Amino acid sequence: SVGLKQVLQDLIPQRKHDILELKKNYGNVKIGDITIGSVIGGMRGNTSMFWQGTSLDAYEGIKFQGKTIGDCQRLLPKSPKDSNGKGNFLPESMLWLLMTGEVPSIEQALHLSAELAARGRQLPDYTDKLMSNLPSGMHPMTQLAIGLASMNKGSEFARKYEKGDIGKNEYWEYVFDDAINLIAALPQLTGKIYSNIVAGGKPLGQFREDCDWSYNICSLLGMTSEDSCNRQNLDGKQSEDFVNLMRLYTGIHVDHEGGNVSAHTTHLVGSALSDPYLSYSSGIMGLAGPLHGLAAQEVVRFLIEMNVMISSPQSGREIEQYLWNLLRCKRVIPGYGHAVLRKADPRFIAMLDFAKARPEEFAQDKNVILMEKLSEIAPKVLKEHGKTKNPYPNVDSASGILFYHYGVTELLFFTVIFGCSRSMGPLTQLVWDRALGLPIERPKSLDFKSLGALCR
Ligand code: NMX
Ligand code: MLT
Question: Which PANTHER family does the record match to this protein (predicted)?
């Protein structure tokens, strides 16, 4: 079938059988020991979640259903409109891979793309009105969380659940519909938020039903050459590159296994049978923290400010001094470090490679030069500083500054694009959570007295 829901329908019975067998026959098998250090240390090293789409290895980085970014770039279908076939895969192909575990055919990927475009034509009018009336100056991530939460008014799952006419076995079908509708709405919602911050809410571009999801994000930001608005006067090549950057970015930020704050929050809230809009809105609120997705905006601010203070983005000595001053003020170097990874993030490398493949575009960009130079200097400084377990660049180190290059210069907006992409992994898991009948999440907590008793 070319329909994602039909393919899932066929897959679910076997998986459900497998998980029940696992529970029945191996439910008592131990995975690890939980230490007091983990309980008071952000649950680090505590393997305790089931997550289907992706898995993170500390040294190899993220794998999407067992596939590296390189594998995905080779295997996942691209847009047929890609003029030279060198572009990035469609995030729609990634969504299919996450949901089913299989690489989609080009027909399957394009069918999903068309379905998202058909469902995403316009925002529900109540969300549109609400978004138009948000106070100016509200952070774009707050706008995104509000917009998503408001769409719970149209949740199929919430409506059916309230009516009481669905059985547990059917939950996933309505969660699936909500998840696809939510993902489909993100280009319009993102465009609306961007127009709120740069154009007093006036539309910046057009939604095109014959185009893919990432293209529509770019178009609604007013960044494609076909649109009259083409805000930055990008030429044909630049605007094609910008769409490709968007496909790359939104294709690889989809998921980072289950334990990161945005994914875990979505899963946790969804386990109470809150619908996908409420669940992902909560995930977005977590993504809006500076130690998580908001680092995307912090990195750009940091690079721009540093470039004002140093004589050249190539000056290793001045960069080093700048970093030491920051660390002496007890601030973190944004875009560096990771809770689980222990090497440079392959997603950072993919973004850096995007810039390196276009020397004529980026060779003169002081911020991009500094971003690359920093990735040599910061790890040395952080190692000498001696606290950070992973001194290497993470996913947020390169992304915002590439968008900035093409003219999306509103720093607070970058994490919204992260939020578009991140919808795909956690919502895939939510569908599977309901398909497999997983229960409400409720770990046990301990107070000081109980922890003390364990130490005696
Ligand atoms: N700059 C300075 N100090 C750091 C950094 C950094 N980039 N990263 C970690 N440290 C410090 C950390 O604050 C902690 O100090 P203290 O003992 O005084 O509390 C110490 O090193 C040990 O921390 P780790 O165990 O290495 O890191 P942890 O797992 O606690 O946190 C991050 C992981 C990602 C929150 C942390 O590395 C960080 O704050 N990085 C900067 C912010 C950032 O780039 N976040 C984006 C992460 C990716 N994403 O999108 O989510
Ligand atoms: C992510 O993509 O979610 C970040 O790298 C943070 C994490 O994995 O904890």
Answer: CITRATE SYNTHASE (PTHR11739), CITRATE SYNTHASE 3, MITOCHONDRIAL (PTHR11739:SF15)
